[in-house]
């Protein structure tokens, strides 16, 4: 029952209040003479909070309408709600996976879980923002929590280094976003996405009705016909591409992913990409759609550059984390191709690919976190590729799952990664981007090499002795088994993802007209 | 003499300046009337800084010598570098000052318009101050405000 419109934001309000409570709870228990270690219990409390958030969100879900609340700065529609549910479920699994890692690495701050909750609050606000200022504030909330999460391991110079690099690059890209927003405000007088849509959705190249008023030629040429607006949009675009680690703005992500503690890298790689893409879709498909025709070709160049960089630079990586970082860079290149098509199917394939990217990323990083070396683990947290040698002899099923997920990411049948990659190439061919499709297919083949190299190291290496690994508890491995089953089942019957992405795209484009 | 100047002025105003005015609308342009002052201010500031630095470089008598350029240690030779590692507590104090200063900055206009706001406006500010108060309790209990 709707008491007032703002009750739609109840899940976020609940999350905010529980974060505040958790800070007080953690502070008053851990800052004592006894210095109790409460990081485990705070982590499980965070899992409980996110589950309750999920419940409130599912309770609140609107099927086919959208609300704009808080003076039209927050929009509640199906896209936002669905992505929030997906991100919340993925982060529940993230929390459960990192519990053992935090205990072994002796990250004893209870603030770690609170920071993850803050970042999730920021991500949820990005998913449902309808205004440039709201989007900027939510991006900053998420980014600040991520900067601290990257640098939290104070005794490791790598971690502090990664946090510093992430902070500088993230602050720079947020300032670019602000600059673009300020120019947009100067041109149009509003920061609201809905108002910008009403102003700029269809931009006619010749204003015949105002042709007689010759006083306005200067205004028309500079402001309306696209010069200044494209200038501002390019700043906003570059800022969001920085956050997604797309070439040539990808250089920070390698060092940050490698230096941060693996639990933070888990979050960086999996969770925020969907939110930033939702923001991109809201700005560039819903507000400034006509300008798509003008910048499409430049974005495609960036996408191809990203795929090439991700494929070729991953070939000579010897550490597993850097390899997964480069693979996530190349995945963002594929999604950018789908984003730049501008068609209905392109948008649908974009969402399909992002959902699959999150699930496959969750699987891969969970396996990465579960593999703990028995000796010398704490000193050497970043795995070399050679550490995985003869994993098939010590843990056959895990090696099999690892190979399957890797081949799904590479895009080989019979896993669902093949279907979504085919989908991306189909939509790019549909808009006649033939050269782009050829180049990215070839680079996809090249990147398959470093996935198969891991499979070869695990199964066919001729080493005399492999490394020993800690045993894995069964309640953690259920997550891996379920995701593995998903990846295989969705190949046979991918209706689940197709239906959700189709519904999202339909409801998004329906409100545009 | 004056008639020729008048003629020149008329010619100047008639052709070029009219075109200039009509294209850029300098007479009735808000942009020009509001921002030209700032442009003049910028030029004067740059000019003043350049003049001061240039004059001080030109007019000073410079005869550098190693003894004159070394660090001063009140009579004897300095035995170690005067700089030491930056203490983080200064940075922490600066950051915390910024946070609570921004809170004060938000309080001031709120107190001015509180009479025209309804009950939601009142409780929004109380909620904001409560959240910053939680942050303050956290800082106090963790020990970031201790000087040692």
Automatic annotation (TrEMBL), chain A:
Name of this chain's protein: NADH dehydrogenase subunit 2
Domain NADH:quinone oxidoreductase/Mrp antiporter transmembrane residue range list: 129-447
Annotated InterPro entries: NADH-Q_OxRdtase_suN/2 (IPR010096), ND/Mrp_TM (IPR001750)
GO MF annotation list: NADH dehydrogenase (ubiquinone) activity
Main location: membrane
UniProt xrefs under PANTHER family: NADH DEHYDROGENASE (PTHR22773)
Keywords for this protein: Membrane, Mitochondrion, Transmembrane, Transmembrane helix
Cellular localisation: Membrane
GO BP of this protein: ATP synthesis coupled electron transport
Listed GO CC annotations: membrane
Transmembrane segments: 13-31, 43-62, 74-97, 164-187, 228-252, 264-285, 297-315, 347-371, 397-427, 433-455, 476-500
Membrane topology designation: Multi-pass membrane protein
Originating species: Thalassiosira pseudonana (Marine diatom)
Annotated Pfam families: Proton_antipo_M
From TrEMBL, chain B:
GO molecular function, one term: NADH dehydrogenase (ubiquinone) activity
Annotated localization: Membrane; Mitochondrion membrane
The enzyme's E.C. designation: 7.1.1.2
Catalytic activity: a ubiquinone + NADH + 5 H(+)(in) = a ubiquinol + NAD(+) + 4 H(+)(out)
Record's GO cellular component terms: mitochondrial membrane
InterPro entries: NADH_UbQ/plastoQ_OxRdtase_su3, NDAH_ubi_oxred_su3_sf
Pfam families: Oxidored_q4 (PF00507)
Transmembrane segments: 35-60, 90-110, 122-145
Enzyme class: translocase
Keywords, sorted A to Z: Electron transport, Membrane, Mitochondrion, NAD, Respiratory chain, Translocase, Transmembrane, Transmembrane helix, Transport, Ubiquinone
Membrane topology according to the record: Multi-pass membrane protein
Entry similarity comment: Belongs to the complex I subunit 3 family.
Biological role stated in the UniProt entry: Core subunit of the mitochondrial membrane respiratory chain NADH dehydrogenase (Complex I) which catalyzes electron transfer from NADH through the respiratory chain, using ubiquinone as an electron acceptor. Essential for the catalytic activity of complex I.
Protein name (Swiss-Prot/TrEMBL): NADH-ubiquinone oxidoreductase chain 3
Native source species: Thalassiosira pseudonana
């Amino acid at each position: 029952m709707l008491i007032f419109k703002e009750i739609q934001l109840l899940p976020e309000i609940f999350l905010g209040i529980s974060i505040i409570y958790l800070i007080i709870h953690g502070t008053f228990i851990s800052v004592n003479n006894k210095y109790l270690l409460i990081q485990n219990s705070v982590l499980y409390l965070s899992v409980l909070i996110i589950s309750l958030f999920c419940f409130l969100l599912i309770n609140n879900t609107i099927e086919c309408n959208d609300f704009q609340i808080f003076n039209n700065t927050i929009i509640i529609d199906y896209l936002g709600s669905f992505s929030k549910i997906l991100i919340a479920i993925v982060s529940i699994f993230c929390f459960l996976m990192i519990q053992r890692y935090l205990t072994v690495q002796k990250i004893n701050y209870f603030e770690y879980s609170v920071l993850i909750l803050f970042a999730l609050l920021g991500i949820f606000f990005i998913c449902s923002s309808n205004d440039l200022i709201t989007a900027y504030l939510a991006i900053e909330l998420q980014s600040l929590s991520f900067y601290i999460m990257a640098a939290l391991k104070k005794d490791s110079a790598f971690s502090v280094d990664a946090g510093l690099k992430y902070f500088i690059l993230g602050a720079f890209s947020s300032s670019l976003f602000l600059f673009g927003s300020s120019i947009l405000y100067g041109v149009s007088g509003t920061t609201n996405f809905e108002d910008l849509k009403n102003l700029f959705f269809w931009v006619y190249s010749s204003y015949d009705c105002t042709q007689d008023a010759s006083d306005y030629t200067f205004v028309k040429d500079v402001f309306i016909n696209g010069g200044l607006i494209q200038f501002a949009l390019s700043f906003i675009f570059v800022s969001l591409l920085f956050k997604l680690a797309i070439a040539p703005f990808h250089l920070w992500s390698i060092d940050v992913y490698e230096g941060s503690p693996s639990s933070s890298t888990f979050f960086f790689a999996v969770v925020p990409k969907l939110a930033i893409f939702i923001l991109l879709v809201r700005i560039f498909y819903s507000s400034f759609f006509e300008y798509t025709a003008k910048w499409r070709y430049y974005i495609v160049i960036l996408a191809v550059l990203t795929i090439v960089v991700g494929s070729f630079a991953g070939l000579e990586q010897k550490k597993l984390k850097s390899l997964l970082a480069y693979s996530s860079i190349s995945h963002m290149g594929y999604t950018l191709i789908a984003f730049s098509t501008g068609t209905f199917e392109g948008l649908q394939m974009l969402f399909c690919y992002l959902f699959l990217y999150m699930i496959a990323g969750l699987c891969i990083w969970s396996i990465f976190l579960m593999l703990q070396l028995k000796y010398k683990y704490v000193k050497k947290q970043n795995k070399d590729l050679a550490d995985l040698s003869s994993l098939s002899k010590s843990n056959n099923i895990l090696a099999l799952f690892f190979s399957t997920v890797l081949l799904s990411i590479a895009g080989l049948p019979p896993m669902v990664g093949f279907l979504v990659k085919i989908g991306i190439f189909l939509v790019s061919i549909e808009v006649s981007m033939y050269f782009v499709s050829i180049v990215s297919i070839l680079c996809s083949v090249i990147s398959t090499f470093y996935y198969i190299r891991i499979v070869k190291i695990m199964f066919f290496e001729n080493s005399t002795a492999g490394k020993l690994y800690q045993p894995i508890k069964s309640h953690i491995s259920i997550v891996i088994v379920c995701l593995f089953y998903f990846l295989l089942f969705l190949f046979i019957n991918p209706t689940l993802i197709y239906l959700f992405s189709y519904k999202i795209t339909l409801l998004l484009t329906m409100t545009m007209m | 003499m004056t008639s020729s100047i008048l003629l020149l002025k008329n010619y100047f105003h008639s052709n070029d300046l009219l075109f200039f005015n009509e294209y850029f609308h300098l007479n009735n342009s808000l942009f020009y009337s509001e921002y030209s002052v700032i442009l003049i201010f910028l030029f004067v500031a740059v000019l003043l800084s350049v003049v001061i630095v240039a004059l001080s470089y030109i007019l000073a008598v410079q005869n550098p010598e190693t003894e004159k350029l070394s660090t001063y240690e009140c009579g004897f030779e300095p035995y170690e570098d005067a700089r030491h590692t930056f203490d983080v507590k200064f940075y922490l104090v600066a950051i915390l000052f910024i946070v609570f200063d921004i809170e004060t900055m938000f309080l001031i206009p709120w107190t001015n318009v509180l009479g025209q706001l309804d009950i939601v406006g009142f409780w929004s500010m109380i909620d904001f101050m409560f959240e910053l108060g939680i942050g303050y309790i956290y800082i106090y209990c963790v020990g970031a405000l201790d000087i040692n």
